[in-house]
Structures
1.
Amino acid sequence: MSQRHRAVVLGATGTVGQKLVHLLRDHPSFEVAAVAASERSAGRSYRDAVHWMEPGSPPEAVANLIVQTVDDDFDCDLAFSALGSSVASVVEPRLAAAGIPVVSNASALRMDPATPLVVPEVNPDHLELSQFPSVGAPIVTNPNCATVGLVMVLKPLHDAFGINAVHVTTLQAVSGAGYPGLSALDILGDAVPFIPGEEEKLCTEPLKILGRRRGGRIEPASMTISAQTTRVPVLDGHLLCVSLRLRQAASPIEVAEELAAFRGRIAGLDLPSAPDNPITVLAGDEPPTPRRHAGAGGGMTVTVGRIRRCPVHDIRLVALVNNTVRGAAGAAILNAELMVKRGLIGASATEARKAS
Ligand SMILES: NC(=O)c1ccc[n+]([C@@H]2O[C@H](COP(=O)([O-])OP(=O)(O)OC[C@H]3O[C@@H](n4cnc5c(N)ncnc54)[C@H](OP(=O)(O)O)[C@@H]3O)[C@@H](O)[C@H]2O)c1
């Protein structure tokens, strides 16, 4: 087996950080060599610091690591960041400047014009932006957890028919708020139609991801998106109720065929975390639900159902995305796998940066 790249997981004790540690267990290309979190956890073994919520126990090799602070220096080939936005905005550029490529879940730099915001099946060419960091190593971001599900659906339909307008209403799981997240008393037996900052992300991030790369910049896609977001008492899996106005007429059957045929722009690259089918379309009236479909494709497949005509726009459908896997940790790992393929992580990338 080829040597694995040594990774530090930043925010390793949180919801996304734990999912990274869990998914990176036995990964063919990456090993978790260091973990970092807040002062609350630093200095303790990972086993003692983490409130583990993944199945089983933390992997033995990680459980024995001593949690570092994010201000430390790391002897690593890359950093997976699962930090909150304000901390990430300071820590990620510092590590990149020190020559460590950063693969980030945080929103801090997603809309920065020089930072790629990538879903490998949708816009792998946007990684090219990171060929030209002004200093140090690249920072590559993945989108908001609901945005990923939306762009996976929009991409094949925008390519086939063109999309003018999108309205999306979400029903989002509590794991999307991190740990400990909402108090049980604020969500059990209730639904909360307000998630701070979420609607803005859903309205802007897809336009960058679906945008065209022109040299060193992205020209955003021209469509209008309206979003309403709701927190519901579900553990994992965000539902998106979407209605679309198309540029070219299409029937529900044609829409279903385009979605089911979607393989994305990394088909054939053999990336370990890429699912065989990025999208699964359910037949007839069967609805996607968090409990039944959040695990599809190991959490990396978006499940779509209830495709029908819309009397206001043209087409309505419901999509389900696993927010902590495809929407966060799995998305970051898939981005890192693509970065390895493109020579942005590893010894040759480090040598190239030193020489430039
Ligand atoms: N949850 C999701 O479904 C999801 C999806 C997509 C993107 N994201 C993004 O991913 C990031 C992490 O989210 P999360 O849900 O995992 O949050 P979380 O459960 O609250 O975890 C936050 C992590 O950051 C660490 N941390 C907090 N304050 C810190 C500080 N001042 N310095 C250093 N480390 C600090 C925490 O360490 P301690 O345990 O030591 O406090 C913990 O490891 C966020 O940017 C979020 O927006 C989350």
2.
Amino acid sequence: MAGFSDRARAIKPTGIRRMFDLAGDDAIQFGLGEPDFQPPPVAIEAFHRAMLDGRNKYTSTGGLPELRRKIAESWSHLEEGLDESSVCMTMSGTNALLDIFLAIVNPGDEVLIPEPYFPLYPPDVVICGGNAVTYPCRFEKEFVPKIEDLESLVTERTVAVLYNFPSNPTGATVTPSQRDLLVAFAKRHDLWIVTDEVYDKIVYDEPHVSFLGAGYDKVIMLNSFSKTFAMTGWRIGYVLSPNKEAMEQVTKMQYYVTACSNDAMQYAVLEAMERAHWYPDHMRIEFQARRDLITRRLNGMDGVTCHTPKGAFYVFPRFEMPGLNSEQLAFEMLNEGVLCSPGSAFGSAGEGHLRFAYTISESEIDRGMDRVEAVTKRLRGLSQDS
Ligand SMILES: Cc1ncc(COP(=O)(O)O)c(C=O)c1O
């Protein structure tokens, strides 16, 4: 009988998109995680040129060798021995994540996933027949996981642990010593480390701490040009691993998922890496000023506590609003013309929080924060009166 798969029925639509679909055109947009910049002009020109030059065909599954070599080279200060066979181009980080799980997860296998999480992680494990087991990243610990929590969740079915620093939605990063403990945990249990480093170029205060080059070869990284060069709509990313066998399996999966990445676009990304390598830094400087502003505004509100994020472009403040869950609170914000995401869209550990993407101008942030402050005052006034 014609029906739908258990997996399709089990997976729910994301709570981020739901708010987005309900928002009016005049809402102040703290909702979606995409830079409000355009890709570097040299990349747009190179994309155009490549299409005119006939780069409109399938490429090899792994992608353009010059680009893969360039990407391998960009990580070679951390990891020796990387070359073009260490990289597989994909059509986004989203595509890369699925390729990786398809390559390493068997039905019934368990993958340790951080919570709060980027909403794709658990469904992607489920699509591959596995079970997503979440480990807590607590507000009190600045969203860095505790090794005891991870240890308590390992079973004989655990095959991988996913780390995401800088994190969406929390903006957390790790120090080198915290990273070393997380690597040692994976080594102890012979687990794959799947490391999502799509925000590696958007870090403040301290340099990015990667899971590459930490002395473990069962590391598979997914990355993307969505955030690095403000190319969210272009859909281009990659998988990189020092582990040759992993790359063979991942690349094979990529063939069956999309065959290859986009031909002309790979030339555009190569051009961006060669001639606009300053670009992510230019965005980061702007994001840092916004981060400082939004964190200061939120911490100035009664009943709101916000860590200063160390990377990405999200804040994940805690709201003390008795009697209201995060979805109801996000609706209250939406009624006042502020679009943000309820913390529960990132797993139940996100309850009590809202996520604000600071991908709008400082004046818009200020205007939005005035509204957020008015809502919190009204709601706290109400709950104190009742
Ligand atoms: C943590 C994280 N990983 C992966 C992605 C996927 O990025 P894309 O599919 O645009 O490359 C995103 C996008 O928001 C993200 O926040």
